[in-house]
Amino acid sequence: MINNNRIQEIIELIHIEDKFFRARWDSFDNLTKEKLMSFWDKCIKYMNDFTSNQILSQNAEVYLKTRGFFSLVQEKPFRYSEIPKQWRSILDYPDKMQELYSSIHNKLLNFTKLNGIYDNVDFYGSIKTLDSIEKKINLISKGSAPRKNLIDIWDLIRFRICTDDLKQLVKIGYQIWCNYFDNIINCRNYYFMPRNGNVDDAYRAIHFQILDSDQCMFELQLLTKSRDAISLLDHSIVFRKIIQVDTTNLILLQQMSYVSNILEGKEFQTIKI
Length: 273
Prior knowledge:
The chain is α+β, with helices and mostly antiparallel strands. The protein has 2 domains: 5-67 and 229-266, no CATH class; 75-226, Beta Polymerase, domain 2 (2-Layer Sandwich), CATH 3.30.460.10. It has 9 helices and 5 strands. It has helices at 5-17, 19-27, 30-49, 52-70, 94-114, 130-137, 166-180, 225-239, 247-266; strands at 122-127, 157-163, 184-189, 206-211, 217-224. Strands 1-2-5-4-3 form a 5-stranded mixed β-sheet. A hairpin with a 5-residue loop joins strand 4 and strand 5. Helix 1 packs across helix 2, helix 3 packs across helix 9 and helix 4 (52-70) packs across helix 9. The protein is globular.
C-alpha cells in the first residue's frame, strides 16, 4: 500500500529545491491546495487497487479509445523558416518582451471570453526566466537537420489553458485552429501521437507555436487541469531533472501520471463539434 504521506514529502522537497514551484504553490489559496491534494490522493487510491502492469495496460487502452477524437486537432510540423529573423534580438530588450507578453495575454484572454470558456478554464502564462534562456542559448539542438544549430527559444513567451475534461480540451484545440489558422507554425498533439510514438509515454498535452500578427512568437499549451496538477508535481523531477529522488518516488510519479490519463479516459464521451 502506498502511503499518502509520500506526496507531502515530495511537495516539501520541491518547495525547498525549486523556486518556480515554490512561487506558484505559495500563490495558491487553501481551497486550491485542497483540490490538488484531493486529486493526488485519488491517484494514490487508484494505484493501491491495481498493479503497475495493469495501470500501464489501462493507460494504453485509454490512448486507443481517445486518439481518434483528438484527430480533430491536426498536427503541423514546425515551419522553422517562419521564425522571425529578429526574434533572437528580443532577448536584449526585456521591456519589449514584457510588452509583447501583455499584448498576447490580453488577446488570449479575449479569446477565452469570446468562445465562452473564460469561466471554465484555468489560464495563466509567463516569460521564460533568464536562467532558462541562458541554458537554451548554450544548447545546440539535437533534433532533425533543420533544427541543428537552431536556438530553441520559441517558447520565451508561453501560456496554458487548462480544461475540466478531454471533451472541452478537444473543442478548444479546434477553436484555436479556427482562430489562428494562418498563424500556427507548429502543433504537437500528444493526445493523438505521444512523444516518439511511444504509447507508454504518459505526457499528454497539445502544444501550439503561434506567430502573432505583430511578429511575436509564443507557445500555447492546452491540457486538462488534472494533467496540470501532475505537471506541477513531477516537472522539476521527471522532465527538468533538477531534483533527485529515489527510484521508488520516481516510479510513484510516473504511475500517477498514467493514472491521471486513465481517470480522464473513464470520463470521456463522444465529442460533437
